[in-house]
Amino acid sequence: MRKETQKLLMLSVLGLISVNVAAQQQVKKDTIQNIDEVVVTALGIKRQDKSLGYVAEKVDGEEFTKTQNNNWAQALEGKVAGLKIQTAGAGPLGSAKITLRGSASMNLDNNQALIVVDGVPLGGTNTGTGNAAYGAGTGGDLPVDFGNNFNSINPDDIESVTVLKGATAGALYGSRGMHGAIMITTKSGKSKNGKVSVTFNSNTSFDSVLHWPDYQYEYGQGTLQKNTAGQFYYSYGASPDGVNTGSTSSAFGPKFNGQSYFQYDPTVEGQSLQRQAWRPYENNIKDFWEVGTTYSNNLSIESSTEKTAFRASLNYTKNNWMMPNTGFDRFNGALSIDHHASDKLHIVTKFSYNNTKSDNLPATGYNNQSISYFMIFQNPNVDLQWYRPIWKSGQNQIDQIHPFSSFIDNPYLIAYEMLNGLDKKFITGNVTANYKFAKNFDVMLRSGIELTDELRTTKRPYSSANYLQGYYREQQIKNSEFNTDVLFSYKNNFGKFGFNASAGGNLRYNEYTLNDYRATGLKIPGLYELTNGISLLTRVPQPRDKEMNSLYGLASLNYDNVWFFDLTARNDWSSALPKANRSYFYPSAATSVILSDIFGLKSNNFNFWKMRASWSMVGSDTDPYNLLQTYNASDFNNSAEVASIYLNPNLKPEMNTNIEAGMDFSFLKNRLTYGVTVYQSNTDNQIIPVPTLIETGYSTRIINAGEVRNRGIEMTLGAYPVKTKNFSWNVNANWSMNRNKILSLPSEFNGEPYTMSSVGGVVFFNAVVGGSLGDMYGAKLQRSPDGQVIYGSDGLTAKSTKIEYVGNAYARWRGGLQNTFKYKNISFSFSLDGQYGGMVYSQSHHKMSEQGKLENTLPGRDNPNGTFVGAGVVQNANGSFSTNTKAVALHTYYGDYYRRANIETNTFDASFIKLREATITYDFPQDLVKNLKMSNLSISLYGRNLLMWTKDFPLFDPEAATLNDSSITPGVEVGQLPTARTVGVQLNAKF
């Protein structure tokens, strides 16, 4: 049975002139998907998907609203082949790094996809605290996740997202499009019949910790000390039972077996007057964490007439995170006006405002001010409530309660007194004017702006481990980017040939300044003002301004709508490169062929067959001020110092050459679709720092060198196994694999590895010819030829001075699966995704194992002498091996076997599967809705990160990464904060 349906198609010629065409379409009742779908490509140009010679995956806006996230981008996880969302697990704002098709640059911070909103790129500049994640013993502070600009976007304002993969897809965006682009189109207001439409969404969600480490609560604090009777014992301070054993962070003490000892007594803030029961407090870490809450309300109003479409929205989000006294308030406002001033002039104006405020965001990493640090050092026999008063009696704001070590700060002091404040205002806006000179000739002028004004405050009270007299800091960040585009376009048909051409240019200017003020020591405790500082540091503002001018063009040819061919060209002039190399040119070519039309293969069972291929070269410049020697801000007031990097006045642009090919199929009246893509990209002339002789007065210099190759395959599958009047089942799956190989390195290394980055001085990301980006190096166990661990004569593992390959931080492959079931007014959907392979080094695992806090340290605890014999061999004088029989103290054995430098014993397989999302929605019957004077009403229950399956990762989440200053480094866990499991309810009403 066929039925005639009237469908309004919004066709766009290169995204410049939009026309409404009422098209009669013969649609069979069970036809599912329209293969002529329009997607947004580079520069905001709208194209039919079938005409593209590269991959452009579209994600509808409902994916970002059905399960609310503090960062909208996390809703993409597992839904797009080759896309990875990497967060640092550093708090509620959830800054993310989005990569497409793996990493291609040896500068590990330079592999992110470009975020584009309504055709205007977001600058994406992140500013860190200037602190490394591993800082214990060095004083100073820690990184804080203050969020990045694109996570400020209101998900309710998103109409759709198109993911452009690879250099060809993003070529027209130049340097920043080298690693692909995420094209966000926001809603513009298109109500029916010109009526005013009001939409209200209300969301409430609750967060709890997804997964806990395997803490042990069988043994308490201590290091296997014995009393005069030869028995293991515990004593907080010297007592009749023996010397003090209560100052250690280790949990190799007596077993909890009903005995009593002199312990800490909070009522006297010291040793108990009587022996107290020796018992575990099994929730002495978990009970610190609370159920987090997020409340979000969104109101939008839209209306449209024949000439004008209008939309305005307001959103308020209140988050109380799982860590006490942390969270944020976020306000979003957006306005869109789409107006046809005449038959020739079309003007679109969009504006958004975001204000994010927080009294406290958690610090992350391994240092005193981090709650992760406290969790590592908390002992099984210590009651969390002992820390509750925060301050010692009569010592308010002077001396904290931390009875077991002055290096371990009170957790409630961290939560309620060590505050990291934020007040961030983020504004974006653009005006686009399309003018039609003639039937086939038009011009687009677009100007966009991005403004960030951010104030950050850091408060540290008296008696904190790193700031005994307190500390206060203010960072004032101003960042602005201005983009102006002009694009002339011509289109025409010559018989069966269609021709479109566009040419234009872009002016981009970025201004950035950072003012940093630090008061070390406070004259009056608890008064956080710069004027209250004992010592005040004012850093000289250090700008990072940059300008880019560009010309570009696009020519598209098609024959009979079955063969399409595109050519693009772009030339950039970058202020960050020297005059001789400032100008660089790069082209691309792409083609697609609709084979099902050419060979007449269409039928009810075989609907569509497309073949596509593309080639491109894309250039990339560098950060500003890498050419001539400049001065850096100094720690001395109003002074500067010579930089330690020798800059290169002859830098050349980095170049990426990309080829890809693929096919797309559709079967069974478009109820089954399949796509496959293979690709290769080579990035050479990489801009990297290399060591130089210290006698030069510099530690490193910037050069062009090195080549990296990426190869990969992506597959997508979509199906409607069941589609009836009352019930439907839709399933989508994706799978991707990426391999990269380092083809060359700077000659200066003479075959030695190049260290791209390191964490904590023990994990090294080394580049070796023939190796891969993400390769992790460090110390490993020494093994005999048959694989047994070698021990020394002291009974401890044999040590090596050699740095060896441990594993790779990136997954072997990734996949995702989404299912949606609909029965009448009820729909249920769930999403699974995961990865196979990849390795994660865990600093927290090292420290908790060294201290006996995890279950993996229980073997040998019942040995009568408190000793342990490591399983392995010793090497004899003649080179042979014999079984190790040397017994060592249990705590000494575990402390050595899991020592921080031993990367092998603290590195784990990062494979996982997650039930990423699940949602059940009920749409109220239309009769009831109409009686309520509404057009739609629905309620949803949803969850995110509901379940996780992982082989052997012992900490919170194998999707671990480290926030180092502003960099997110995958493959290393240093003071990771817990991952949240979220459940919530959402009400959607439309009037």
Automatic annotation (TrEMBL):
Keyword ATP-binding included in the entry's annotation: no
An example molecular function term from Gene Ontology annotations: siderophore uptake transmembrane transporter activity
Membrane protein topology class: Multi-pass membrane protein
Residues annotated as signal peptide: 1-23
Span of domain TonB-dependent receptor plug: 57-180
Transmembrane segment boundaries: none
Pfam families documented for this protein: Plug (PF07715), TonB_dep_Rec_b-barrel (PF00593)
Top-level lineage group: Bacteria
Keywords: Cell outer membrane, Membrane, Receptor, Signal, TonB box, Transmembrane, Transmembrane beta strand, Transport
GO biological process: siderophore transmembrane transport
InterPro entries given in the database record: Beta-barrel_TonB, Beta-barrel_TonB_sf, Plug_dom, Plug_dom_sf, TonB-dep_OMP_SusC/RagA, TonB-dep_OMP_SusC/RagA_CS, TonB-dep_rcpt-like
GO cellular component: cell outer membrane
Residues of the TonB-dependent receptor-like beta-barrel domain: 421-946
Subcellular location: Cell outer membrane
The UniProt record lists the keyword Cell membrane: no
Record family assignment: Belongs to the TonB-dependent receptor family.
Matching NCBIfam families: OMP_RagA_SusC, SusC_RagA_signa
Record protein name field: TonB-dependent receptor SusC
Provenance organism: Chryseobacterium aquaeductus
Gene that encodes the chain: susC_4
